[in-house]
């Protein structure tokens, strides 16, 4: 019998963490063997199916972190612990972990995109074989009330150089002791940047473009920069063409791309 590649597995929600009004992490009750940077197709009955990055792996669960933006995500936000969603995947090309081994790795992420690099950070901090020699994180949010993964950030701070910035503190009641300004303005505070530094940059297109320009001022080579793309997807497996940019299918050739290739794909 031919198996249906579009058929997902029903998975129970075992935990829900509310980061902000708009963002939640759902812990799903099954093991998923994948690598940092990959995504799953999440299907919510009577709403639709969407691609979401895997934001955490453990031996018997995995996590997705979702921003409530529309039809499917709002239905997902109605789900409670014990409810089920359907999952296909993991799909796509993740981060090139072997290229980061024994290197200085800088991860720059903005907003919800932190979810997509969280497994990479956790892997880099815990793996014995492919770990980076030095890990720096530069993470930006809109304002203090938009900060995600507060507990994880504290843990990461113990293990490497972490700069957390917010665009503004105006109209925000929460106390803020971190940086204020755009992520790009804080690149200069990262120690030891140079041609061989490996960098992952992920966030809105303008943030990525400006950050890469700033990195090149610090002599970081484009070939040492990687990013991850978010495109509208339907099949997730290279069949429908929805995610196509020129000759690349983001769902199978990406979502992670080296910047030499990504530069020609950015709209
Ligand atoms: C590889 C990949 C990984 C992703 N990882 C995450 C993640 O970890 N967390 C998360 O919250 N979201 C992630 N996204 C984006 C997520 O898939 C969309 O937000 C989701 O499809 C919106 O579905 P919806 O039905 O709720 O919204 P809709 O009702 O379809 O749309 C609401 C608004 O969001 C816009 N939108 C829809 N899809 C996308 C998209 N793919 N990119 C940009 N804008 C879009 C629409 O144009 C519209 O303006 C990822 C997308 C891709 C391709
Ligand atoms: S989503 Fe169908 S080809 Fe990529």
Write up what this structure looks like.
With 267 residues, the protein is α/β, with parallel strands linked by helices. The chain has two domains: 9-91, Translation factors (Elongation Factor Tu (Ef-tu), domain 3), CATH 2.40.30; 97-262, Nucleotide-binding domain of ferredoxin-NADP reductase (FNR) module (Rossmann fold). Helices cover 20% and strands 32% of the residues. It is built from seven helices and 15 strands. It has helices spanning 71-76, 97-100, 114-126, 150-159, 205-217, 250-253, 259-262, and strands at 9-18, 23-28, 39-44, 48-57, 62-67, 84-91, 104-110, 134-141, 161-166, 179-180, 198-202, 225-228, 244-245, 248-249, 256-258. The chain has a seven-stranded mixed beta sheet with strand order 10-9-8-7-11-12-15, with helices on both faces. Strands 1-2-5-4-3-6 form a six-stranded antiparallel β-barrel. The mean pLDDT is 93. Flavin-adenine dinucleotide is lined by residues 39, 48, 50-53, 65-67, 69-73, 112, 115-116, 230-233, 255.
């Amino acid at each position: 019998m031919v198996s249906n590649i579009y058929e997902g597995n029903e998975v129970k929600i075992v935990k829900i963490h509310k980061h902000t009004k708009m963002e939640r992490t759902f812990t799903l009750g099954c093991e998923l063997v994948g690598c940092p940077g990959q995504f799953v197709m999440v299907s919510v009955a009577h709403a639709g199916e969407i691609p979401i990055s895997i934001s955490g792996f453990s031996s018997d669960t995995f996590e997705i972190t979702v921003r409530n933006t529309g039809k499917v995500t709002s239905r997902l936000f109605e789900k409670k612990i014990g409810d089920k969603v359907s999952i296909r995947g993991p799909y796509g090309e993740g981060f090139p972990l072997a290229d980061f081994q024994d290197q200085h790795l800088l991860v720059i992420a903005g907003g919800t995109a932190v979810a997509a690099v969280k497994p990479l950070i956790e892997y880099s901090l815990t793996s014995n074989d492919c770990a980076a020699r030095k890990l720096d994180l530069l993470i930006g949010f809109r304002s203090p009330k938009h900060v995600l993964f507060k507990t994880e950030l504290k843990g990461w701070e113990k293990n490497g150089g972490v700069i957390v910035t917010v665009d503004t503190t105006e109209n925000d009641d929460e106390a803020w002791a971190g940086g204020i300004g755009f992520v790009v303005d804080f690149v200069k505070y990262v120690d030891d940047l140079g041609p061989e530094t490996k960098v992952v940059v992920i966030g809105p297109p303008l943030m990525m473009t400006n950050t890469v320009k700033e990195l090149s001022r610090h002599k970081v080579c484009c070939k040492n920069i990687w990013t991850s793309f978010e495109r509208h997807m339907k099949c997730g497996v290279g069949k429908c063409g929805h995610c196509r940019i020129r000759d690349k299918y983001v769902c199978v050739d990406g979502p992670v791309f080296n910047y030499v290739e990504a530069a020609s794909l950015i709209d």
